[in-house]
Specification:
By secondary structure, this protein is mainly α. The chain has a single domain, classed as Butyryl-CoA Dehydrogenase, subunit A, domain 3. It contains five helices and no strands. It starts with 10 loop residues before the first helix and ends in a 5-residue tail after the last helix. The relative contact order is 0.10. The structure holds flavin-adenine dinucleotide. Pfam families: Acyl-CoA_dh_1. This is Alkylation response protein AidB-like acyl-CoA dehydrogenase.
């Protein structure tokens, strides 16, 4: 409760909850698509693995960050409360298995490769 209302009835909190639902559903869809491409041995699997890893690692951080914000001081200061614990746990997602910057570098390299090859005739690996 805040200002006499349930948090979920406050407009700006509703926006944060909606954005988290969008991040969660988009992450689920991307993971399922990537798993399908991997299962079928598709050539698109490498690119989608990097796209999924980057998007989901950043989305889960946004979701947990909003949860902390919604819970206020309790969200960040109570060491055993779920938001504070999750906050510590999800931050490394953007670093391990390749930092987001490294994946973005690889995603761009794959995205421009066909155009670079058609312009120069040289494959850059
Ligand atoms: C909790 C945790 C668990 C881990 N578990 C494992 C494990 O089980 N097995 C394992 O092998 N490793 C593990 N690691 C290591 C992890 O994979 C590396 O930390 C990660 O690959 C980043 O390497 P680095 O720490 O050497 O950072 P660096 O390579 O030194 O990069 C530092 C920063 O520089 C930036 N950067 C790096 N490259 C680029 C680039 N090309 N373009 C732009 N910016 C760039 C990024 O912001 C990056 O975060 C784990 C790490 C953590 C935090």
């Amino acid at each position: 409760m805040a200002f006499g209302s349930a948090l979920g009835d406050l407009g700006m909190v509703q926006q944060m909850l909606a954005d988290s639902e969008i991040d969660i559903e988009a992450s689920r869809a991307l993971i399922l698509r990537t798993a399908w491409e991997l299962d079928t041995g598709s050539a698109a699997a490498s690119q989608l693995t990097s796209v999924s890893k980057t998007f989901v690692a950043e989305a889960v951080n946004r979701v947990v960050d909003r949860a902390v914000q919604i819970c206020g001081a309790l969200g960040i200061s109570a060491a055993d409360a779920p938001p504070a614990r999750l906050f510590r746990e999800v931050r490394p997602f953007r670093i391990y298995d390749g930092p987001s910057e490294t994946h973005r570098f690889a995603i761009t390299r794959r995205a421009v490769r066909p155009y670079r090859q058609s312009r120069t005739g040289v494959a850059d690996g």
